Amino acid sequence: MTAPTPDASTASVDAVVPGSTARTRVRRLPEKAVHDRQALYDVLDAGLVAHVALADDGQPYALPCAYARDGDTLLLHGSTGSRLFRRLADGDPVCVTVTLLDGLVYARSLFESSMQYRSAMVLGRAVPVPEEEKVAALLTLSARLLPGRVDEARGPSRKELAATLVVRLPLTETSVKAAAGPPDDAAEDLGRPVWAGVLPLRTVAGDPVDAPDLDPVRPVPDYVLDHPLRRAEAT
Known about the structure:
This protein has 235 residues and is an alpha+beta fold. Helices cover 20% and strands 31% of the residues. The chain is built from 6 helices and 9 strands, in the order H-E-E-E-H-E-E-E-H-H-E-E-E-H-H. Strands 1, 2, 3, 4, 5, 6, 7, 8 and 9 form a 9-stranded antiparallel beta sheet that branches. It is globular. Mean pLDDT is 90; it is low at 1-11.
């Protein structure tokens, strides 16, 4: 007996397997689908920028946006003056994607050349974060992007809070895809006298650059020097 397909509108968030709904099932190259919720978390936790897509009067728009995963939701924030963000807060259908590019695959043919990647897609409708929870949500976003900073920097003022929209998007209907491995050349191309392989890619942070108006005796804090992306550069 075939198990019923989960309905993302009624199933609990942590029970919905990525790619298990009609809209998120991977049909093109289904072997690249990853049906593992931890893999979803791993992609979202490794990324820094999400592309938030929605339609405004029939015109699709995709907006790059900083985000943070907070349990089984995504936190997104933007200006109250943004028409698209107001539509997002009003509950318009949205598609959010995060992609991590891990390598360029050099095959012996251009057709088989490709990329190594991990990607996540989230479908649904966002809900505004209540005013009494907005500061905590913004601190979560800041801690995700700038670890250690929330203990030193000034928090948001009342005016800044009024100018900011924060929404939550449940991770209820999702899809995860991944491509890895060496080139998959056709047998007739294996003897072609060209190099084949993978050029690995990663995002790393360089050396901190002082603000031009910084007090010259102010050192770079350890949490900046030890940012995860700087550690990635050392490995």
